[in-house]
Design brief:
Layout: E1 2-3, E2 12-13, H1 21-30, H2 37-45, E3 57-63, E4 89-91, E5 98-100, H3 104-107, E6 113-119, H4 126-135, H5 151-159, E7 169-172, E8 177-178, E9 181-182, E10 196-198, H6 217-240, H7 245-261, H8 263-269, H9 276-282, H10 286-299, E11 304-309, H11 329-353, E12 360-365, E13 369-370, E14 375-378, E15 392-395, E16 398-399, E17 403-409, E18 416-418, E19 420-421, E20 428-430, H12 435-445, E21 454-456, E22 462-464
Parallel strand pairs: 3-11, 3-12, 6-18, 7-10, 7-11
Antiparallel strand pairs: 1-2, 4-5, 6-17, 8-9, 12-17, 13-16, 14-15, 19-20, 21-22
Length: about 475
């Protein structure tokens, strides 16, 4: 028996991944009388929102642990051998832009993305670096949990639509933890703003998102009858309600019910509805299918999607943290690059070919780059991309002083590089950009006014959603 992820209702599932009837009824029926997704929607509705505009969406591809910028998006062929990796730069479709030879598919869609090569901050640990990038927390020291909401939560909070049958923030392999640290979350917005979480490997034949689109008509009918009974009881309170809140409650309960019974909601998560050729283009692996699901979700109306690239496709320690004790850094990057290159390039191509390139902004980044100078240490254990324990091997360590981010879609000016690092890749030498500018750029795309928007914290004080930072002007958003 397995349990669903904590972002769902929480019933146990049968061994084949399908919810058993008893478990479903326990979740669906008793849940509607306790704290359920409907209650979470209701709590969200209690806070005023900004005026909704046209649909906008962001897909964040998060490289947990930090990707080496030198060995991917910012090659340094003229650096000395103690900095330069073994991979040669290759020309791309865009004159003047080079990537490393490990990214041939991305090189062919370079006209559809922009590279920001001059990102820098002060968070040297995974928690601090993640919190700086995802929430704008300026602290350099690690924290066990965030004190500021991440941008995904804030954006969902400000743009949520109670009439939408699917939650506005979905995390496909959630961006939320690094070991025992929480690196993202709603903080003082409260747990009702957690994303709808999809866990597991969507490339597996038996993959299924729990509590979405019940196929058993009998269970759906039972749930509907139970809700109707609840509505009759609530009708007594509705007659006495002078605030209109009961009408809102009804709407949010209906939204939660839709997740369980709606064929529309079920279809959004159902990758089997895609052509085999499309699934193959993304890659029949976890990262590829995560990106394909993200594209399906934005087409279904979801605006905020975060998907994390980690796990077995990264190598032995299941992340991008390529210290020498963890991985042979160059073996690790070579191992994961084909999965990464295929998934991200397919997502970018699909966003443009399906006419989503103004609506959807795709961002690829991790918490920081890696040390330009190559280090050496004994491996702590053998496995994929790591020599046997004790083997001396190369690595790159944490490096918040320089990183590259990829932006695609969103109506931005693509086919360009913004900023630059020095010859060895250690520091920006032009157009240094900090986390605040990165976050302001996201909010700009989502049409959220960072200068005049604040959220009340636990102490009842309004806190600006962004302390500092301005949108990256070179991206030149259109519309």
């Amino acid at each position: 028996m397995t349990r669903t992820d904590p972002g769902c209702f929480g019933p146990q599932n049968s061994d084949d991944g399908m919810p058993g009837r008893r478990e479903f009824l326990r979740a669906g029926l008793t849940g509607f009388t306790g704290m359920t997704l409907a209650d979470l929607y209701r709590l969200q509705a209690a806070v005023p929102k900004t005026t909704r505009r046209e649909k906008r969406a962001v897909i964040l591809v998060w490289l947990r642990g930090g990707c080496s910028h030198l060995d991917t998006f910012d090659p340094k062929p003229l650096a000395t051998s103690d900095y330069r990796g073994p991979y040669l730069p290759i020309d791309t479709k865009t004159p003047g832009i080079q990537l490393t030879e490990l990214l041939p598919r991305l090189s062919q869609v370079s006209d559809k993305f922009a590279l920001l090569r001059s990102v820098a901050h002060t968070g040297g640990g995974h928690p601090a670096g993640s919190l700086q990038v995802l929430s704008g927390d300026p602290a350099a020291a690690d924290k066990t949990k965030p004190i500021f909401p991440d941008w995904m939560t804030i954006a969902s909070h400000l743009r949520a639509d109670p009439n939408q049958p699917i939650p506005n923030y979905v995390a496909v392999n959630p961006v939320d933890r690094y070991d025992s640290f929480t690196i993202a979350g709603p903080a003082y917005l409260g747990p009702s703003y957690e994303p709808f979480k999809v866990t597991g490997d969507p490339s597996k034949p038996n993959f299924r998102v729990p509590n979405i689109g019940l196929k058993n008509a009998e269970d759906a009918q039972r749930l509907t009858r139970r809700v109707q009974l609840r509505e009759r009881l609530d009708g007594l309170r509705s007659e006495l309600d002078q605030s209109g809140m009961m009408g809102a409650v009804d709407g949010f309960q209906a939204q939660a019910l839709n997740l369980l019974t709606s064929s529309e909601a079920a279809a959004a998560f159902d990758l089997s509805k895609e052509k085999e050729s499309v699934r193959e283009r993304y890659g029949r692996n976890q990262w590829g299918q995560q990106c394909l699901m993200a594209r399906r979700l934005v087409e279904a109306g979801v605006e905020i999607i975060a998907t994390e690239f980690d796990g077995p496709l990264c190598g032995r320690v299941a992340n991008w943290d390529d210290h020498a004790v963890n991985h042979h850094v160059f073996d690790a990057i070579k191992y994961r690059a084909p999965f990464f290159d295929q998934a991200v390039s397919a997502l970018i191509e699909d966003v443009y070919s399906r006419g989503l390139d103004k609506q959807v902004l795709v961002i690829v980044t991790g918490e920081f780059g890696r040390t330009p100078r190559i280090s050496y240490a004994p491996s702590s254990g053998g496995g994929v991309a790591s020599g046997a324990k004790g083997t001396r091997q190369p690595g790159r360590d944490h490096w918040p002083r320089a990183n590259t981010m990829l932006f695609s879609g969103g109506g931005i000016q693509t086919g360009q590089v913004i900023g630059a690092t020095n010859r060895q890749g250690t520091d920006p030498i032009s157009r240094r950009v900090g986390p605040g500018d990165f976050l302001a750029t996201i909010y700009r795309h989502l049409q959220i006014d960072t200068e005049h928007t604040a959220i009340t914290n636990f102490a009842g004080r309004p806190v600006p959603i962004l302390a500092k930072g301005r949108p990256i002007a070179e991206l030149a958003f259109r519309g």
